[in-house]
């Protein structure tokens, strides 16, 4: 595997991962799903091992796949906090998080609490 240019299979895996990830987040937001999507499930759907999925995503993009899941959750949270009347607690529950854990997670990634972010961006 070349470090400069990913193989076709690597590109397929990366694209499929992001497709699964985006679909899952949309399902959570719409209420069609309330489950966390484990990497092992995505790997199973792609007929590869969990480790192979992790290694491929890390090699192609430089970050662990969970990093991208976290970013997608934060993007969704920001959109919901900005574009709706939902409270931080409602957003947390919609995204299948316990509100206190969600606030800590949001602050760790964004640098401010979700309530502060919402007040500054709406």
UniProtKB/TrEMBL annotation:
Keywords: DNA-binding, Transcription, Transcription regulation. Residues 15-120 form the HTH araC/xylS-type domain. InterPro entries: Homeodomain-like_sf, HTH_AraC. PROSITE patterns: HTH_ARAC_FAMILY_2. The keyword Ribonucleoprotein does not apply. It comes from the Bacteria. PANTHER family: ARAC-FAMILY TRANSCRIPTIONAL REGULATOR (PTHR43280), HTH-TYPE TRANSCRIPTIONAL REGULATOR EXSA (PTHR43280:SF2). This is AraC family transcriptional regulator. The lineage of its organism: Bacteria, Pseudomonadati, Bacteroidota, Chitinophagia, Chitinophagales.
């Amino acid at each position: 595997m070349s470090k400069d240019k990913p193989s076709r299979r690597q590109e397929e895996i990366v694209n499929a991962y992001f497709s699964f990830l985006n679909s899952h987040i949309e399902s959570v937001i719409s209420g069609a799903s309330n489950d966390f999507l484990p990497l092992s499930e995505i790997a199973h759907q792609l007929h590869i091992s969990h480790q192979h999925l992790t290694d491929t995503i890390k090699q192609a993009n430089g970050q662990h796949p969970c990093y991208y899941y976290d970013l997608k959750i934060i993007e969704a949270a920001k959109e919901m906090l900005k574009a709706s009347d939902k409270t931080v607690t409602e957003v947390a529950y919609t995204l299948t998080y316990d509100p206190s854990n969600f606030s800590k997670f949001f602050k760790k990634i964004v640098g401010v609490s979700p309530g502060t972010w919402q007040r500054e961006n709406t």
